[in-house]
User: Fold Alanine racemase from Pseudoalteromonas ruthenica.
Amino acid sequence: MALATATIDFCALRANLARVKSLAPDSQVMAVLKANAYGHGLVPIAQQLADADAFAVARIEEALALRTGGITKPIVLLEGFFKASDIEIMLANNFQTVVHDEYQLEALEQAQLAGAIKVWLKVDTGMHRLGINPESINTFYRRLKDCPYVQDEVNLMTHFACADDNQDAYNEAQLQLFQTLVADKPEPLCLANSAAIINYPQSHGDWVRPGLMMYGVSPVKNTFSAQLQLTPVMTLSSEVIAVRPVRQGEPVGYGGHWRADKDTYLAVVAIGYGDGYPRHAQNGTPVLINAQRYPLVGRVSMDMITVDIGPDPSAVAVGDEAIMWGRELAIEEIAACADTIAYELLCNITPRVSYQYIASS
Ligand SMILES: *Cc1c(COP(=O)(O)O)cnc(C)c1O
Assistant:
């Protein structure tokens, strides 16, 4: 019986996908499954998303793992392919590719294929990470249309840099630039990640690309999932393995970083950064035991954390479940306590954690 456990609730997942669809009723959904489905388990999550229209990943290996797992839906490679030899693999496996650079276009033009690949042309409207320059869109578009190995329909996409902040004028600027660039091109459009799905209905287009919100986590700044009618899919928990007294003035954990300011009891919980619990979680980060929030104290170790349960040792017993985040304890709050974002916490779950898949109602 493993200690650190990620319990994954399929009902919550499906409800969140339904929420995406109610927010963007006229768009098709490309469900983003990169990084092991944000730490939730690639194939088990894909199997539950029958209502998605396509899947998206960041690496061809992730796409191949979906096929090996029996997933037959179209899969989009969000960063495209990196080697010309990947093109045959894409064709054989019904992968679609983003084209964001000249080298990809040239490789497609020089390919010798028995079929054609579906392409998503990515335009950089201000993120300045991937994407062709706005000035080159017409050239790229024309060359893709002329390429015999590219399917006739050339989807057009872009990505927002600041969609998590609905007060940021940059979003409107990106949206307007994109609309200007694509106005003369009768093709499917795809712009919105989770934050834009929520904050910018005018960006929905023909396809949306939800990641984080499907997992029930808020993509919007200073907002929790419940406010957005999303349900956390993952609960990360472990067990109390010791309850022990500590006296006023005694230091706890590596570096003696925290000292008890009065006599108290500690619960030691079997989870640490070796499981993906963030080492930078500060003193006071809440841990839920028996429906009660207790503060983390002292440094997070590889395999354990220490929690201050106060003067009554009967409040917590060895073997009690401790919850790090989940439905009753927002991962957004834990991320803030660790000076990071929920995305990183989810992706950092390590192979030592056991996965338990459930369907609550
Ligand atoms: C990861 C990713 C998404 C999903 O982003 P969320 O914020 O998790 O919704 C969408 N589009 C692209 C290009 C991505 O890389």
